[in-house]
Amino acid sequence: MRFESVIGLEVHAQLRTRSKIxxxxxxxxxxxxxxxxxxxxxxxxxxxxxxxxxAVDFAIKAALALGCAVQETSVFARKNYFYPDLPKGYQIxxxxxxxxxxxxxDITVDGVPKRVRxxxxxxxxxxxxxxxxxxxxxxxxxxxxxxxxxxxxIEIVSEPDMRSAAEAAEFFxxxxxxxxxxxxxxxxxxxxxxxxxxxxxxxxxxxxRLGTKAEVKNVNSFRxxxxxxxxxxxxxxxxxxxxxxxxxxxRLFDSTSGRTHSMxxxxxxxxxxxxxxxxxxxxxxxxxxxxxxxxxxxxxPEKIRQxxxxxxxxxxxxxxxxxxxxAVNAYxxxxxxxxxxxxxxxxxxxxxxxxxxxxxxxxxxxxxxxPVRPRGLxxxxxxxxxxxxxxxxxxxxxxxxxxxGSRVDTADTAAxxxxxxxLAQVGDESALLEIIRDVMARNADAVAQYRAGKQQTFxxxxxxxxxxxxxxxxxxxxxxxLKRELGG
Length: 488
Ligand code: ADP
Ligand code: ZN
Ligand code: MG
Known about the structure:
The chain contains 15 helices and 17 strands. Helix 7 (326-338) packs across helix 9, helix 12 (429-442) crosses helix 15 and helix 14 (457-468) packs across helix 15. Helix content is 39%, strand content 19%. The strands form four sheets. Strands 1, 2, 6, 7, 8, 11, 12, 13, 14 and 15 form a ten-stranded mixed beta sheet that branches. The chain has a three-stranded antiparallel beta sheet with strand order 5-4-16, with no helix packed on it. The chain has a two-stranded antiparallel ribbon with strand order 3-17. It starts with a strand and ends with a helix. Adenosine-5'-diphosphate binds at residues 6-10, 157-160, 199-201, 210-211, 213, 269.
């Protein structure tokens, strides 16, 4: 029997507000434990929540960018459960009247485009954090840091529309791009400001009814998400094929073993005893507020991608890579602007996608800390597009810039390096002719073979000319001259 996998994601994204959702405490990450707390986020009796306006604005903006229908009235609810890091004994969330409904994200995997529908987006508060190490009696006690308690989140729930781990990873990436571009989330999965739970089930191909799902928690990178889902699909198929049944449960992903294991049986909604939060009025969003939060084109990566394809004639692929973050896009745009006022976008794209992003990745940093700044790179690329140096000499110049150990932000640094190292391309006919005649004299056999009709030897002879010029020959000029000299 052949199986199909079905995946739906629930993504929690921290909103980039300065203060928490129901009190004035700071949301700064990494502060000493329990320094950003107050009676509200500690759940002291009698303390009353006040909704953070900026959090709602960010949530509205995200919902509009994702094509959701923002509801005029939405309602906070108490979700009751006991957990040590949940001081009130309930989480303030939204339940049957969430902020936004519908929407979707377009993905393309293996060239196949597809729209993954969203079910809803609702607002809620984060819990505190249990600490199991880093203090003296950690072998006997668990400590709790409430700094994160009350941090504003949106939960984005997808329909079960994905059919592979690759589709799920693509969905999550596109979603992250969107949230980061909008400026509503920092995209930092390691610090937990973006988290994803994957719901996975399998069913025989052709069966309409969905199989029983397991929910995998604790996946904090794209790679782990893909691995966790792949493991879970295999586990469920093995189970069902050998006559077993999938149990509805919550499972944890262990990145060390690459496996998922059972954490707890899945609770049902009625277990939470949801009821409307009596301390907060309904959230009313009028038209004017939606208009004010409507994302501008330059905040939506998909729009920027389309514009880069139309304006610069870049391939879709390039546009996708160059809009992976606002910082990468700004780097490309600046560099491009400085190379003959944007006349060579594809050449600039090749340099940024190839060399710059490779170097950034090797350094394990982000592009803002790349020492060669757009003006410096533009100086180099201009020399290449003008034919003053070859592409390979350009790479040598880039290495030399990195070796300088300081920021390179001026257009003439590249030219200085070229002059110092004698990297200028030889395009001058007489100099090249001298090299070509020398190569022909030393390779009389190859010349004779070429003239006898063996075309392949041409490549060999070009190679010898390039070598003779120590890589500095202008390849186009060298090719033409060599053909002429060979009488081809
Ligand atoms: P629950 O009530 O268990 O939280 P929901 O219906 O709210 O389940 O769905 C939670 C998430 O699980 C959604 O992203 C949804 O698309 C996904 N989902 C629901 N049923 C399945 C299924 N059978 N297989 C895979 N994903 C599913
Ligand atoms: Zn507080
Ligand atoms: Mg649910």
